[in-house]
Please model this.
Amino acid sequence: MKIIQSVGLVMFLAGFAIFIGSFFTAHYRITDEILGNSTTETENALIQEYGEDMLDHNFATSYTLISQLSGLFEQINQELLNTYSFTSDELQALANRAMEQGGMFSLANVEQVIGADSEAASFKLKSFQDYGSWLDQRQYENQQALFQDLQNVAENIRLYGIINQKGFDRYRIKDLKFQLAKAAGNGPVSRNPWLFLGLTYGLCIIGAMMYILPKRKLDGPPGIKNNNIFFSAMKNKGWLGILTGTFLIVFYVLLYYFPEYMTNWIIMVDPISQILKGSDAGRFFLYGFIYTLCILVMGIRMIIKYRHSKYQMIRTASVMFFQTAFAFLIPEILLRLNKPYFDFKNIWPLDYDFFFDNELQTLIDSGSLGIFMLVWGIVLILVAVPVLVYFFGKRWYCSWVCGCGGLAETLGDPYRQLSDKSLKAWKIERWMIHAVLVFAVVMTGGVLYTYFTGSGQVFGLSTYAVRETYGAWIGAGFAGVVGTGFYPLMGNRVWCRFGCPLAAYLGMVQRFKSRFRITTNGGQCISCGNCSTYCEMGIDVRWYAQRGQNIIRSSCVGCGICSAVCPRGVLNLENAPESGRLNEPILIGNDSFKIQA
Amino acid sequence: MRKIAIIGNGISGISAARHLRKLGNDEITVISGETDHFFSRTALMYIYMGHMEYQHTKPYEDWFWEQNNIKLVRNWVKEIQVSQKTLLFQDGRTMAYDILVLATGSRSNKFGWPGQDLPGVQGLYSYQDLELMEQNTKDITQAVIIGGGLIGVEMAEMLLSRDIGVTFLIREKEFWDIVLPPEEASLIGRHIEEHHIDLRKQTELKEILAGEDGRVRAVVTNENQEIPCQFVGLTVGVSPNINLVKESSIETNRGILVNEYLETNIPDIYAVGDCAEFRVPLANRRPIEQVWYTGRMQGETVARTISAHKTAYVPGIWFNSAKFFDIEYQTYGHVWNQLRDNENQFYWEHSDGKKCIKFVFDDQSKTLLGVNSFGIRLRHQILDQWLREKRELPYVMKHLAKANFDPELYSRYEHEIVTSFNHTFPDMAVPIKKKGILASLFS
Ligand SMILES: Cc1cc2nc3c(=O)[nH]c(=O)nc-3n(C[C@H](O)[C@H](O)[C@H](O)COP(=O)(O)OP(=O)(O)OC[C@H]3O[C@@H](n4cnc5c(N)ncnc54)[C@H](O)[C@@H]3O)c2cc1C
Ligand code: SF4
Model:
């Protein structure tokens, strides 16, 4: 058995090493055909013109390719700016002319100054009409004031007009870098994606199973299996934990901010993507695929570890099911059927872009299924959350359904003891999570305002900038990089505890209107501390248990591990009538006087 | 403002301090030589097993004491000068007090076996014992534990977590049968063996042998069998830690003698917890109570007496709990290891041999006297209520589901238990009913 485990470990590590190694194994070459497939005609022409030496050139690493591409796009944009910007002389001429006409600016003057004989001139003319029509027929006291306004118009054209219409804006650059890098790569992975799929994921999964399954026998009879956790370099912030955390953080940073470097990893899952949705994989397909695998493999570990507890086994099976079916398969299959991508169990404000105009538009344009999805999403927010939390506590979502919760409860289980239990941490938690909730609500409010009024500005703030900030800092940075990357350092629920706005909402209902509580069993607590130690949400469970008080905390996700690890059977997750839920601390057993904690 | 000194920062001393603070603003000082802060002695095993670190076993964060104005002193008290109301510390310092609470706990028993003081032989009570055990068990492969009680079985579990082979010598016929009735004792015995512990029943220690390095090399049993080992755990019970008061005028027997107000023979000196011995034991209870819960209750009670709400120690219905490897044990009321004259019992054991429940009742009145439960959690509040209200067994059986405290979705055994009960006691048979899912959603 031990040998099977060791072989499994070696296989897993080999698979992982090949996965990491494959990152570096391609060389890159952008052919005419690749360029043609990824770009529009104008884009193609620009790249042909300025980037001639890059085409059909061999790049040894993605890094050199991408830095060259970055330089190229910058150069093109600069050239375009030079061609299409108003020069200082032109602005001066415009101002002079207006002054000559008694200080009145007229749009008609622009054509006289710029002319209309070239393509550049007509673009300038057009863009001035778009950005500067408000100057028309304005009266100016002095030339300076007018010149100032003209400069502003010219600057706006530089910033928003030229790049967006003629050049490559940053979204397009990101997109093109990724597409070109993916298509241009040529190496063992792109030649044999199936082989590498097997050598990486295949080896890792089989290896992991060989390591995990024998635990059923090796670990002895069913029961709590927490031996040596705090001596483990992996589970107590030792070198292995730090290494794992670093890997996760790097992975997330690449995924969210630099996907163009991880094309080899994405190519590997193209075959699976083809089978599921009939097209090649993008970075979020890769992410969903790895995510689901982690939940499945580590879910099996979880079930074996807690095989004495039906609650844990069923709960784990539930998160495995919801991730695989609802988060991974159904949305991909919907895409294949030409329907909108939709995760039926994701709820705003965790699903922060649910109300984004493009998302809404997609749903509304998709006929009755789209409308159903829209209504479904809103019903989840307004009805399912309060009603189900009333009956079962927020656990129905956080530790039975949610994908973030699913990963935390499976991949993250080995790290649950690392959460901070101090009062200070609790204070920070309450501030942070509610701040994120407010942020999410404000951001969404702005988005809807823009959707219904068409105006992108509220109180001088761009709603687009706000949503972008939310997406980058909260959606990607907090939920992803910190939320998962810090598992081995701060425990497995960093995001759920400090960041998730949906958890904050669920938590408020749970705290004030719910039948759910963790009941403390009379006076049986021996203050050992197992419950608090293994609480992933950092709740100091013992504080309540040792004074005979029920545990009612908005953050409790109802994972039930405190109840499992308690050696004295003190804690029980229950749904019961609300009376007596928020009980006075009472320790049964001392009749000397009415004892309160 | 009186100066109250408490010797011992265990559960009894700390409970006294906390409640004294709630009730008044006396100057409170808690003294201990063991650790700076209160920690949970019951969790010692989990530190060794890597389930927790020492810091996790502290029930209160370190700022708690200052915030509540409870002074902590880390020192050993060497002598109590009763007439001067002064404590003398090991390092020569002194401290005056107006009121003294003794909460010095227990220490491990040793019965004068040859070799009992050899390096590698030890008991397990204090934090220092734990550190010693850490050193003593480094890189060893075989251990012997003498004495089958709760600490013994914990030690076995600890050693096993480090892959150290354990031979477990118990004097009794079945594991812990001085407390447990035979069925339960044998159930636990089987479970211990399931964990590959070499459980030697009715075997006593004769002597402990030293090797050439002066450390323990083997033990010899009363049957002259030699068992090689590098570590010996002596877990043959604990007794009150009264060295400190023995020389003073405070009266002692096995423990520090107290009345029902936890007062010693000297005014302004009290004793609570493991170290206290009641001059007149309470009905059905031992004169010395050596568990966590009673330590806590005595601490709570003495705080009232000292704060001018003179209160006698009146514990409620007895309860206790433990865990033997994977099997949890809870007991409520009194289940003696043998039925007493007026008693009868109903015992049910699950076919897996790892869960059982026993009800002891008065044979005449059929009222419930005590319950033992293994592998099934029971609800303290309900059992306490039934025992207090002297419920008859048919009532208990009828409402058994209410007493269950197992986690949701666990298999429930009430049906099986009551069926078996009806079968065994047809004259007390009760109807069996099932509750729908919907009903439970709204109940
Ligand atoms: C390993 C183990 C497991 C246990 N498990 C359980 C369990 O599961 N359930 C249960 O109910 N009970 C259990 N017990 C028993 C329980 O821990 C004790 O009953 C309880 O801790 C006694 O508390 P106390 O405050 O009376 O004494 P203690 O906790 O022993 O505290 C006494 C303190 O006083 C200090 N002290 C003594 N003399 C001096 C001096 N002269 N100067 C300074 N300081 C001094 C000691 O160093 C010690 O720190 C267990 C005990 C052990 C050892
Ligand atoms: S795990 Fe159980 S006994 Fe230990 S502190 Fe928590 S509630 Fe109390």
Remarks:
- Chain A touches chain B through 57 residues (CB under 8 Å).
- The first helix of chain A runs from residue 2 to 22.
